[in-house]
Amino acid sequence: MKRFDNRDITWERSARLNLGIDTKIKDFNVILDYSRDHRTNILMDRSFIPTTMGLSAGVRANVGAMRSEAFEASVDYNKSFNNSAWFSLRANFTYATNRYEKVEEPNYSEAYRSLVGSPTSQVRGYIAERLFIDDQDIKNSPVQTFGPYMPGDIKYRDVNGDGKITAADQVALGYPTSPEIVYGFGFSSGYKNFDLSAFFSGLGRTSFWIDNAATNPFVDGQRALLKVYADNHWSEDNRDLYALWPRLSSTVIANNSQTSTWFMRNGALMRLKQVEIGYTLSNRIASKIFLKRLRVYASGSNLLTFSKFKLWEPELGGNAFNYPLQRVFNLGVNATF
Q1: pTM above 0.85?
Q2: CB within 8 Å of 52: residues ≥ 6 apart
Q3: C-alpha closest to that of 329 among 307, 305, 297
């Protein structure tokens, strides 16, 4: 059985406000939009069903509430000049957030454990302090309950001070995994027969985690050792307590696979998505070769990426073995007969 009959389940309710402005100021077209959405009666899993009831499936009910807000703006600019030149610019920006207002959860004595007030895509995990120095360091530290661990493995913070590392020590980490900021901007310009255009896109206020299990070297005797790990990992010869990778192992170490700040990274980036330059033959020359129009151009995609994350292509996320984004160059001709 996957679910129980529950005839009290009903629709979610949503109260939405949307305000917008669409105006033109000289050569600028400006669009501004603000929206707010308050959702109640969200269908969620019940958390207070005792295991002694012997139920074979979870119970769901309309017990959640969430508030979200978003601001969007776009600007277009177009201008033609008397000297056969023209220029256009476009930019867009979105900032969107959401927060739980009501969640069925235990009445935690530690406020940091509650989901109320957190974004829906907020990751929770452990605060990693450093790697263990030696056996004496392990002995003098709170007990970590994730399986065997040794010097060179990750040491976590005992947030509630009870002398052991458990789920009670998990806190909200970083930014949401869904970007709160998305933006783009670009331009197109021309002078006589030449034209040039470029477009940038970016993300902000988002975090991602290096996937320990997916990038762990030597697993099953097949996975490769990434160079970034080979160059910066803990070993007996290099007891760097803040090395990128803990001690190497041919198996996935459960202690080091916990979601924590150790593998958390800033996902903000800006990318030069497209650049194109072209030249259009004059009508007089084109007609001599029996054409109405002829344009030659060169373009490139995904040319530059600006990001604090330098280990591998940031849009691969936490798994360096994902298929990378391709950089593409094109040469082309557009002919109209």
Answers
A1: yes
A2: none
A3: 297
